[in-house]
Amino acid sequence: MAMVIEAAYADGTGVANALRMSQVQWHELQRNYRVGDLQMPCCSAPAVPKVSANGYPFFAHLGGACTTSEESQWHLAAKILVRSVLEDLGCRASVEMPGSGDAGRWQADVWGERNGVRLAVEIQRSYQSLRDYRKRQGRYSDEGVKSLWLLGQERYSTLAKSMGKERLRTEFGGKFPPGGHFGPCLPDLPVAMLELEPVPTIKGAGFFTATLPDLLEAVLSNRFLCIDGLWCINNLDSMSSAAKRSHELAAAKRVAANT
Ligand SMILES: [Zn+2]
């Protein structure tokens, strides 16, 4: 069940958004809401304000049932989260934003604008070929729209493999570079992995980690960069020491397993 952070008041007076509420306000809502006051964004079922085991506030379906698929619940929860964070970063933001350029039409999952900077965030959990990622990406870059792909874990692994193969083919002549390790990412496809649970987390190839606000702010201000096949912010050093630690740990385990 994807944790959604926003629910609408049934009487049309607006929304309750966990990102905009203090702990005290959230507890107050938990005490004072009546069933039916708030509606889930996915299916309009009664929403119940809760706090996860990790202390993260979210809305749950009353009784746990939802008529929409797990996949579309996840997608919706992610869109609402990204839109809310963009708003917190000072953007005018909306979901399902249509637009078009010379290379074709788009409908951005989340769209943000700030001081003349336009950003499209695409959230992807179902399969899409590398070719289609690039085609859709091109529509944004051709129009000077910044973009970011946020992928579910499985999707990210699949795409990382395709991108790695592409790099190997086009940049390394099909031969693994000396050392065998190389970053799989392509500079024309800004991408990171988004996990919603247990708490929203951003990860990526080469031990990239960030908070969602830090990542979005970096994209808006041109600080999310692809360096040697790895997307990073300003944490390439800590990423490579994390990679080194992990390799050492794996080597130590191999030694231990052989003795
Ligand atoms: Zn629902």
From TrEMBL:
Source organism, top-level taxon: Bacteria
Alphabetical list of InterPro entries matching this protein: CoiA_nuc (IPR010330)
Record-annotated Competence protein CoiA nuclease-like domain positions: 71-162
Protein name per its UniProtKB record: Competence protein CoiA nuclease-like domain-containing protein
Native organism taxonomy: Bacteria, Pseudomonadati, Pseudomonadota, Alphaproteobacteria, Hyphomicrobiales
